[in-house]
Amino acid sequence: MDDEKQPFQQNELTPEDLEVLRAFHMLEEPASDTPTLQEVSQPASPSHQPYETQSAATMTDEDMLVFFTTEADEDITSMRLALQQLEQDERLDSPGLVALKRITHKMAGTAAAIGCDSMSTIARHMEAIIKLLEGGAIVFLTGLIALTHAVQALELTLESIATHGYESKNPLLELEEEYMAVNIDVHAKSTPEHLLLEDTADALFHTASQHMPGTYRNLPPVNLRHLHQLVLHTEKLIELHTPLGNAQKQVETALYELHAAQARLRRLEPLLSTLSVSLNTTSNTMAANTVHASSSLVARILQGAVKRTGHIHQPESALRPQPLPVRETVLWDEMEIDRFAEANVLAHSFTEAIADVATATSQLHLAFEQLNAIITRQVDQANIVRSNAHLLSSTPFSVLLTRLQQSIELIAGKQKGRVQFEVSGETTEIDQDILETLTPPLLELVQSSTAEGLFFTQGDEQRLRIWLNAHAISNEVSIEIGSSLPISPGAIAGLRETVYELYGSISLQDQYLEGMVLHLHFPRSQRIIQGLLVQVRDQGIVVPFSQVKRIYYQKQKPGQAYPQDEPFADLPGIYHLSSLLGFSSVNKLAAKTLRTALLLQVDGPQVAIEVDEVKGEVELVMKPLATHLRRPGIAATAIDGSGNVLLVVNLPEIVQLKQAQRHDGEIVTGTGMLHHEIALPEHTAKLRQKILIADDSVYIRRSVSHTLSREGYDVLEAEDGIQTLEQLSKEALDLLLLDIEMPNLNGYDVLKIIRAQQRFPGLKIVLLTSRSSEKHKQRARELGAHAYLTKPCPQDLLLETIRSLLVKDEV
Amino acid sequence: MSKLVMIIDDSLTVRKIMETSLKREGFASVSYPDGIEALRALNEHRHPVPDLVILDIGLPKMDGYEVARHLKTKQQFGNTTIVMLSKRDGVIDRLKGRLVGAKDYITKPFRTQDVMSVVHAHLSSHSIS
Amino acid sequence: MLPLQSLPAYSLEQISDEEFWDYARERANVVSRDSSRAEDDQDQYLELKLSSGSCLFPLNAILEVVPPPHRLARLPVIPTWMHGVAAWRGETIAVIDLDLYLSDTSISSLDGILLVANHAELTVGLLVPGIGPIITVQLEQMLPSTTQAGMAKGIYAGASVLDIPALLAGIVQQIERAALYG
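YS: structure for the whole thing
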């Protein structure tokens, strides 16, 4: 790079440069059409390096990184030189400072473009310090040292990229610590620059001495009422601790009693067995049922106790009492009076023991119920506390509105009267953190729109209308921003990024003469996600409600093979979530009878995402993923009750990325990784065959177009017979897909005309129609069609027919 | 017949990134490190007129506004859309840009998809403005 | 001074009370020293049998050993040696096939054992075919490593002693890069 002689002399134009300028202004308007791209030639006298050409396309990201490190290295060297110059001059108007400004600005942009955020941040800090220096906010020496350290940090970070292949964040963190220690605030918002423009512009803006009030971080006031509620309910929650403890103690006591009673019962057991042996001889006519009844009664009581307390009791089956039936009379025998008395006493104690067990069990039951009741109250109270805490972290929308209004008034200045600012929904409560995240990009959007709007409609009586509305439905917050003048796409990009971070969606509605409306939707809380649980393959995925407009269902016959992207009726643009996520797309026979798709909230044409099943609604705690696990459109996960990981996706973002990759061929392998096929190289461009689809149905045209362009054909569309003929005469078509039923000249007539004109000998014609009788086929053939397909036509048949017809062409 | 996008930015890396992304989107692109180079190339007799120019503000020799101003003096670039790359808080920058004829802006640091969506918005066949 | 090796039981009865207390105190000190030191002469390692041979994994880097079955979720654009992600104590962690990562061949399957390994802020799940005994490694007897550049601290008794910080950092870095470069 030969313009690196002295970095700070780059701002001067050499005589040669001036020559170029003069030549430019002498350029005449060309008389004919501008030349097509194929005629671009290299500059006649390449005294400087020729500009880069399309070879950039074949670069990999590794190469990019190499480029970047080389460039960054050079820039860092220039920075050092500029710093040296600044140091020598010891003045703020040193050329070194100008050069430094430019290089740091360049570095910030370049590093960010390639993804090295750490380096970009350091460069931006440097820019901020230079501003502080110029504004007199810090001493020259301090600024110089701060800048030197920053350059060192840049070097270290670059080194880490070169050695390890990734950015180390340490130099940036250390640098920031140092700045904090020395009280250099790199985040202080700068005052608006002094404008050196035409006078008219000056009238709009205040000079640099005024600050914008809205730029400092306002701490919204804490709502005292909410705080009071929170404290109250928390106290109530704590009050429940004592009764909880008591109830637990009662359960313990009851359990203890039960065990004691059981023990007593058990102790009687051996005595019984000895007794039963002797009694057996005398009373084996004892009613078997009563024996059984008692034994089973005992058994049942003990069993019941076991169930309730989970306490495994020692073999109860061993307890085979043969107790004396209490009411039966026994044959008296002299010999047995003693034994009988003994038996009686024993029977009595036995009965008592059984009764004790029964009582203890029911006591335990009771205590348990009480405990449960208290636990339920506690859970309810905890929920109340949680929603109170939630409310506390919310602020009314009016806080943001006030700031917006202030900044609009500031920008409008004397023209304040021309701006009509309307708001509604000021009382809507929005989570504080979310509001703070949204404020900077919203402010910027509104400021830019207002400034441009006012400036370019000066002298106009027309008023500039800006209106905002916020409302919240259960867990969704919606904000609408309307402007009577159009909002440029670039202005929305910054806001879009923020909205995606919040798991929300953003869409722009053009009201034509009335201006534009921006719709934002996002979940109320960033920690708890509410959404649809959908099934893709065997995995669960959570889609936040904010992103879904509607759910579509379509019945289909089971056993019907469904290729992934076959159009859903009424939904031309559809993706299957599994292929969007790069999971293996297996063409399988559909066993189910229902196809499900989610319609997204996006700008422009509708987008729908097909999923295997919608399992229901969920509300789960969501946690951000570790940095290395983050993927485009996937930044957090939730864990369900069974311990499964559910990805929380940002569908609008994923779709946007996918649409940007449209021109790459993508193959998904079995392992679920995405491979990028290299785009068709230039020289085969001439071999791309042109196909015209003529059909009055938009849906048919779109879906056929989609299928064919994916296969590598160039596809053109025509709505009726006349357009078909127009296209035929304009373009060199290879194949024509012709519907019969069309307005303004139907398919048959088109065929007749083509045959009569005899101008298109090589053209292959395929009739695509819903009429399937033999008579029609015959007629078509007579008229010169090469193939006849009935609608609905399976994709593979269509492609195969086209392929075979076009192959014959290449002799 | 793809549209031509011209990129003027002093960073080689940025130029390469933009060119790669534009090519992926089906646009043709050329790029120059500064305004003088761009004008020199445009002086060439058969250099095609770009449909869209992405212009950085902080350029050596001649800043972005100057370049835009020069471009707009010539009638053949009357239909060329100019998009400026500006700083995050640059409300003033953007206004200056609009004064010299830029139609839209992209903030730096940018994400490639944002640039592409702006390019598409301005160059798609059915955009009215 | 009594030797630190544990005394046979009968001799404990024969020593005097005072000697006994001294001995007990010493043993207590040894135990507490054991648990408080990070790198020392004696370290506990878990032996892993992988297709490329045996590896030694430091116990202090293992947070939990989880037996199968494992519930894994897929994640887009991940390296071939990564099976997916799993939930562990409320956290989502990457699950990788250690064998495949180290040597491009693998005998492990999803029925293997999951070692939840940790160093500093990084927690990664490593799926291994099986785990072996716990071995005490005398670090001074370790030989310098020749293969598996950067992953192994050295070789001990024929097995590679894994360097966990380097291993985990490398794994995480490559998972991150897979997202950027496909």
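YS: worth flagging: DSSP finds four helices and ten strands in chain C.
IM: good catch. Also The two ends of chain C are 64 Å apart (CA to CA).
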